[in-house]
Amino acid sequence: EPRSPWCCLAWTLVIGTVNSLVFLLNLLLMFVIFTIVLLPTIVVVYFGFQCHSQVLHSSARYCQSFLDDNSSSALIILGFVIMSPLLVVAMAIYCSLARRLQLLVCFQPYSLALYKGGRWCRRGEGAPCCARGCNTQLKAWV
């Protein structure tokens, strides 16, 4: 049966808040994973740009004794070349972790706010879902 207008508004706010928190959790997890996996690329490109005379030309000792313009250019190119495989690795790690934690199943549909009788239940390995019958055969990924 349909909810009253104020109850529907309250449930809509609750569900919107839960969905926003799940989205922020996904975003934070993705940021942490990509930062850790892409750290070698970030470091190599940073030192390449820092020591190149046409860009920043730092007066640090390692720039003057170890890295000239040619080696700085090589570092920049190496950093951008290794970025592609590391992006694939980072995305694979994020997708594997999101699948294992079932983060994408945590989003709640707004139909829960409109009608009474829908409930939050536990499915499978403890991922929250919204269903009237709580179908345990339903999977997010095949």
Automatic annotation (TrEMBL):
Cite a single GO MF annotation. PDZ domain binding
Q: Which UniProt keywords apply?
A: Membrane, Transmembrane, Transmembrane helix
Q: Where in the cell is it found?
A: Membrane
What residue intervals traverse the membrane?
A: 21-49, 74-94
Residue spans making up a coiled coil are none
Q: How does it sit in the membrane?
A: Multi-pass membrane protein
Give the highest taxon in the source lineage.
Answer: Eukaryota
The entry sums up its family as follows:
Belongs to the TMEM88 family.
Would you tell me the protein name for this molecule? TMM88 protein
The organism is: Pteruthius melanotis
